[in-house]
Amino acid sequence: MLERKFVKLQTEIPGPKSREILERRNKFVPKGISNNCQSFVKKAQGALVEDVDGNHYIDFAGAIGTLNVGHSHPRVVQALQEQASQFIHTGFNVMMYESYINLAERLCELAPGHFDKQAAFFNSGAEAVENAVKIARKYTKRQGIVSFTRGFHGRTLMTMTMTSKVKPYKYGFGPFAPEVYKAPYPYLYRCPEGMTEQQYSGMIIEQFEQFLVAEVAPETIAAVVMEPVQGEGGFIVPDKAFVKRVREICTQHGIMFIADEIQSGFARTGKYFAIEHFDVVPDLITISKSMGAGVPISGVIGRAEIMNTPEIGEIGGTYAGSPLGCQAALAVLDIIENEQLNDRARKLGERVLEKMRLLADRFEGIGDIRGLGAMCAMEIVKDRKSKTPDKEAVGKIVKAAAERGLMLLSAGIYSNVIRLLMPLTITDEQLEEGLQILEEAIEAVYQNNNPALSVGGE
Known about the structure:
EC number: 2.6.1.19, 2.6.1.22
Pfam family, one: Aminotran_3
Largest sheet: 7 strands, mixed
Pathway: Amino-acid degradation; 4-aminobutanoate degradation
Number of strands: 15
Strand order of the largest sheet: 4-10-9-8-7-5-6
CATH architecture of the domain at 90-338: 3-Layer(aba) Sandwich
Structural class: alpha/beta
CATH superfamily of the domain at 90-338: Type I PLP-dependent aspartate aminotransferase-like (Major domain)
Strand content: 15-25%
Radius of gyration: 22 Å
Catalytic activity: 4-aminobutanoate + 2-oxoglutarate = succinate semialdehyde + L-glutamate; (S)-3-amino-2-methylpropanoate + 2-oxoglutarate = 2-methyl-3-oxopropanoate + L-glutamate
Low-confidence stretches: 451-458
Protein name: (S)-3-amino-2-methylpropionate transaminase
Shape: globular
């Protein structure tokens, strides 16, 4: 184990103070709300977190992709303090505030597409998707909504229906919303053996076209909702040909193409919006998570003629687009631009994938590595021939990393993917220390469980 500069562990994880609070949590907070880490935060800055027991962690989870600009960025803190000293909330639908307009204007300028755009703001990612669906249905006068296998869009009735993973998101919560359909989405790692990437892409495109014959008629579909990179589904990156063909089909049939950028947006993939990598212009874009640097805010950006379809009062909400959220989001946009976080994301991704390739050379359990920009993941399997998902190993790796001071998250419909969502503001030294801890955690799990899975290295 190398000497740590940033991680400092004063107690076991979780420590005595955290365990004491955990007992109260278990008594007063329902178990249905999951907790990845069993410790309780005291303060956090950048990519570093300190818990109530004085233990210091490196954060590779980023509050599930919410902190691209890092914890408590000084510009965000200043913006919030200044706003709170003036007023905290009036309700945009009661008395408006200019920050809402400023944010809408900036996002409309940044979003892809050379046409007039408008933006509306809400509270959460699920709300953004719900409202994008409402707007698309209102505009097209159709009901059908198409999402994709392994997609995740939220926990409300509509967005839960659109989501693929049954447990823990859907099990026992039905009946679900009607007129929602799941289409195939490419997953190159699990393509049929012997098939080339081009052949596989053609097959998935053909399946999507057949889907519009066998499952639902295109003239009844209001919108296709696609994550340009699937987040909870396991950081699955589709090929450009597939995304472009889906866009063409939508255009052909008057279907709204909605890019769900809730996890992939705001510089995570090296561009403001991940859809920009695919040379596709969506009709609507849903945004949240890193938009507010931890302050709840979400939004929908889209073609003005589509966004302007709902009548007065048909969209919005009491806290939708709050002043604090708008000011935080404006600060985030400043930080991305001034600190060149799109460039930083690309460089981080290159280093992370390089490290993952070295780990894959050492450990047979790493079946696949993939990513776009700084949205990177490893898929863990029991063996590379069968590609059987190894959820148990991932759980152990995440736990071993936490015990060593690294915060990690899993993903994938089988929970067998380790995803990395470190703040883009992380320093090179912090990144390297975190990657070293990740390697130690993997090494500890495989050497304890099955030494044969470790196939080289020092």
